């Protein structure tokens, strides 16, 4: 699935694949190609009395090796 997303203030085009679906509590996707070296994104939904709480867990590996890691730490 092609997606356009804004990560760290920059719009990016990437292809993702849904890798886990546990309705209505969770779904997760993995980047197939895009800016990051790797990226997995989990969306967790929890029912509350006042509505629904959504938690995003975004795990990635910076591109450009050590230079990407240094840039991430500095920003």
Fraction of residues in helix: 10-25%
Number of strands: 5
User: How far apart are the first and last residues' alpha carbons, in Å?
Assistant: 30 Å
Multimer state:
single chain
Q: What topology, given as strand order, has the largest sheet?
A: 1-2-3-4-5
Count helical runs: 1
Q: Rg from C-alpha positions?
A: 14 Å
Report the major sheet.
Answer: 5 strands, antiparallel
Low-confidence stretches: none
Mean pLDDT metric: 83
SSE topology string: EEEEEH
What would the principal axes of the Cα set say about the shape? globular
Strand content: over 45%
Short summary:
The chain has 1 helix and 5 strands.
Helices and strands, with pairings:
Elements: E1 2-7, E2 10-22, E3 26-33, E4 38-48, E5 51-61, H1 65-74
Antiparallel strand pairs: 1-2, 2-3, 3-4, 4-5
Describe the 3D structure.
This protein has one domain (2-74). It has a five-stranded antiparallel β-sheet with strand order 1-2-3-4-5, with no helix packed on it. The protein has one helix at 65-74, and strands at 2-7, 10-22, 26-33, 38-48, 51-61. The chain has one helix and five strands; from the N terminus they run βββββα. The protein has 75 residues and is mainly beta. The longest helix has 10 residues, at 65-74. The protein is globular. Strand 2 and strand 3 form a beta hairpin.
């Amino acid at each position: 699935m092609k997606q356009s997303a804004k990560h760290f203030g920059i719009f990016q085009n990437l292809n993702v694949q849904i890798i886990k679906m546990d309705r209505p509590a969770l779904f997760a996707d993995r980047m197939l190609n895009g800016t990051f070296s790797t990226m997995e994104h989990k969306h967790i939904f929890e029912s509350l009395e006042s509505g629904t709480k959504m938690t995003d867990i975004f795990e990635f590996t910076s591109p450009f090796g050590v230079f990407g890691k240094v840039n991430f730490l500095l920003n």
